[in-house]
Design goal:
Length: about 290
């Protein structure tokens, strides 16, 4: 919705999500105050902290073991950003099939079947526009987030260690399981289905736009976490696990998109399209970053 309005100059669907996620991850990586009490909880960490403070470097080696930091960085920021959706938009731009809004009061997308034909050169320019805009803004946001953390360092409070471990960590576990189970129940009985689970009004949107994505997203996030945990350490200079799950998630995004737009029974029925949309937005979006 943030990039889809009448006359929008940028038509990629996940641009601002990638920018916001990059901004936050840059802040978290460079910040040295939020988790100061967690980092200083061991003598070795305190010695490393003093050395790194003198060198003005972030305390990332120790922060990466803090559950709340892992949840915010790997969990939230990794799921908030999406490599597969960005790759899909780049492909659609090259194929002249990227949905765009019309320049009037309506925000309905232009039907790709009625898209005006253009030369291959224009399509290549559209591909470059999607790639350069997304990559440049995301990298800029990452650097801005890091500089912002340094600028507000003296004003940032530190999260109390005992409060985070006893209340925040446990509360998030309860909230996560409760939200996921709630989404499953709501998918069985959608809020926009007034007649109950057996009633089909033909106007259901919650499952396709929200609920199925929420159901599949934790699975994608966990897949990315374990891929990173198992493979990233194998090559010190390259995040092999993140790269692998990005490729797998993008391939799944392409397969789901193709099935959704095919005339087969899998992608042609409403429920099938909603499940595939949930896989693309939820699993693939959360698995790739």
């Amino acid at each position: 919705a943030l990039t889809f309005y009448p006359g929008a100059p940028v038509q990629t669907s996940v641009l601002w999500a990638n920018v916001a996620g990059s901004l936050l991850i840059g802040f978290l990586v460079e910040d040295r105050k939020l988790f100061d009490e967690h980092v200083s909880s061991t003598p070795q960490a305190r010695n490393d902290e003093e050395r790194q403070k003198k060198q003005l470097r972030p305390l990332s080696p120790h922060k990466r073991t803090i559950p709340l930091y892992i949840g915010l960085a790997t969990g939230f920021c990794g799921s908030f950003t999406s490599f597969s959706s960005f790759t899909r938009d780049a492909f659609l731009a090259l194929a002249n099939a990227l949905p765009v809004s019309v320049s009037n009061t309506s925000t309905s997308p232009i039907d790709p079947a009625s898209t005006v034909a253009r030369s291959g050169g224009y399509s290549f320019m559209a591909l470059l526009a999607v790639i350069i805009t997304t990559v440049a803004l995301s990298i800029s946001a990452l650097l801005v987030g890091a500089q912002l953390a340094l600028a507000v360092e003296q004003y940032m409070p530190s999260i109390p260690y005992l409060f985070a471990r006893k209340f925040v960590d446990r509360g998030i576990v309860f909230l996560a399981w409760g939200s996921w189970l709630g989404a499953i129940l709501m998918a069985l009985w959608p809020p926009d289905r007034s007649g109950g689970p057996s009633y089909n009004s033909g106007q259901e949107h919650w499952r396709g736009r929200v609920l199925f994505a929420i159901i599949f997203a934790p699975l994608g996030c966990l897949a990315r976490f374990y891929f990173s945990l198992l493979l990233n350490a194998k090559v010190a200079s390259f995040p092999l696990g993140t790269f692998a799950i990005n490729i797998i998630g993008t391939a799944m995004e392409g397969m789901c998109w193709d099935l959704q737009h095919s005339p087969s029974t899998v992608g042609g029925e409403v429920l099938g399209c909603q499940v595939l949309q949930g896989m693309m937005d939820g699993f693939c979006g959360a698995a790739t970053t």
